[in-house]
Design brief:
Radius of gyration: 23 Å
Number of strands: 0
Structural class: mainly alpha
CATH class: Mainly Alpha
Shape: elongated
CATH superfamily: MetI-like
Oligomer: single chain
Number of helices: 11
Helix content: over 70%
Largest sheet: none
Amino acid sequence: MSGRFSLPRIAGGRVFLLVAAGLLLALVAGALLAPVLSPAPPEALDLPGGLEGPSLAHPLGQDRLGRDVLAVILHGGRVSLGVGLVAVGLSLAAGTAIGFAAGYRGGWVDEAVMRVVDILLAFPGILLAIALAGVLGPSFRNLILALSVLGWVGFARLVRGEVLSLKHREFVVAARVLGAGPLRIAWLHLLPNLAGPLAVQATFAVASTILAESSLSFLGLGPQDVPTWGALLSQGVDYLLFAPHLALFPGLAILVTVLGINVLGDALRDRLDPGRLR
């Protein structure tokens, strides 16, 4: 009976994965090719056409200033993906280095690092990001900094736990007995075994960071010189009753991007740890 019901479930899961991956790929391609695909520059104004709905000239309608919503969404994807990738990249590098040092050295180094991590985890991440973005000012660089301050903590905890487990394994002990130094052991034996968990963690972190960036832009704390999904969504809230397209389409862009990345993260996790499916 279990085999009979597992096949449709797996097949349905694969279809959902393909659909999510296809939509995500379309959004990423649209962001990368925004200057080519945009029907108009995102800063082009058409005041008489403000808040007009979808049409042949403007497939997703226009905002209150007459800017093409499709152009803003395509160019806004560059901001969301850029912030997500850069902020997670910085967090990944810092968290891996700090967590590795804590797990491998142990002792007072591990104790000090973990106490700092515990203190930082006591702060709600989004509230700290809002405070930092408000103090530093709305810009692309400050937004990345605000989202990276706590982003490294999850990577540090993951790496520290994995290193504590791996450093006592037989292959690491054998390498140490054969005279391998800490750097050689780290590079050849420990880091390759961390690649899988870190890839999964980074995938989910990108989705969370994109959502956080959209939230900060919605509050007016994102970049002011480039279009963003959060800013367009914030504008759409004021005209929700008679211009719903202004909030609908950027909201869908955020939903599809975050959902697609999370689905791919689940697939990557199952791929790297097939024992979870049993």
